[in-house]
Design goal:
Blueprint lengths: L1 H11 L9 H12 L4 E5 L8 H4 L4 E6 L2 H11 L3 E5 L12 E6 L8 H13 L1 E12 L10 E4 L2 E5 L2 E4 L3 H8 L4 E8 L3 E8 L4
Parallel strand pairs: 1-2, 1-4, 2-3, 4-5
Antiparallel strand pairs: 5-10, 6-7, 7-8, 9-10
C-alpha cells in the first residue's frame, strides 16, 4: 500500500487538485460550530483537505505515509502543519489529545482488523466531547462488486488496493460503541458516507 501511494504521488503530484473535498468543507463548518481549536488529519496527503481548517484558524496536525506527499504539503503550507510520516496503522504518533479528527477516504482502504484499531486509536486521541469525522465509500459506488473479492464487501480494485464498501449496517457495527453521532451521505467523486462520532464521558 505504501509503495502504491508513493508511486501515485510521484507520478501525478497534486493528483486531486488543490480544491478541498466537499466533506472537508462540511466538516470545517461543523468544527467551527463546535469551536474546535486543534485537529488531527490522518492521511493528510499533500494538504488540500487541511486548507479549509487552516484558513479558519484551526491548528492542524497530520499523518501521512508518502514522503512525496509530505514534501508537497510543505511546499504549499510550510510549517503551518505538523506532519508525522508513517502509516495510520501505527497510531498514535504522540500522546496529544485533539478536539477533532477528520479522516477523508482512508478507512475503507484498511482491512477489518486495521479499521477496528484505527477507529479506537482515533477515539483515544480525542478530548472529552471531541468529535471525529470519517468519510467512507458506500455500496452505491458504481464499481462496487468489481475486481477480486477479498472478503465480504471488500474488493481489490487495483493491484495492491483493496476497498471495503460501507452500508449503514456496517457503520453501526464498527462505530456505534464510539459515540456514533450522525451518518449522512455526501457526493464526492464517489458516493460517500460522512460518519461523525462524539467522545462522551463514560
Amino acid at each position: 500500500m505504501a509503495d502504491f501511494w508513493e508511486t501515485a504521488f510521484n507520478n501525478k503530484q497534486e493528483m486531486w487538485g488543490m480544491n478541498p473535498a466537499t466533506s472537508a468543507e462540511l466538516t470545517r463548518d461543523f468544527f467551527l460550530e463546535k469551536n474546535m481549536k486543534n485537529i488531527l488529519i490522518p492521511g493528510i496527503g499533500y494538504g488540500r483537505n487541511a486548507q479549509p481548517f487552516i484558513e479558519n484558524g484551526i491548528k492542524v496536525t497530520g499523518i501521512e505515509i508518502s514522503k512525496t506527499a509530505i514534501k508537497l504539503a510543505r511546499k504549499h503550507y510550510g510549517t503551518e502543519i505538523n506532519i508525522y510520516q508513517g502509516s495510520v496503522t501505527r497510531m498514535p504518533f504522540n500522546d496529544k489529545k485533539y478536539d477533532g479528527i477528520f479522516c477523508y477516504a482512508l478507512i475503507h482502504l484498511l482491512n477489518s482488523k486495521e479499521r477496528k484499531k484505527f477507529i479506537q486509536d482515533c477515539y483515544n486521541q480525542l478530548t472529552q466531547n471531541g468529535y471525529m469525522v470519517f468519510t467512507a465509500i458506500t455500496k452505491n459506488a458504481p464499481q462496487y462488486g468489481q475486481g477480486e473479492l477479498i472478503s465480504k464487501d471488500r474488493y481489490e480494485t487495483h493491484k495492491g488496493v483493496n476497498l471495503f464498501y460501507y452500508e449503514r449496517g456496517s457503520i453501526l457495527l464498527e462505530f456505534e460503541k464510539y459515540g456514533l453521532y450522525n451518518i449522512t451521505e455526501v457526493a464526492e467523486n464517489q458516493p460517500m458516507f460522512l460518519i461523525t462520532c462524539k467522545k462522551n464521558k463514560k
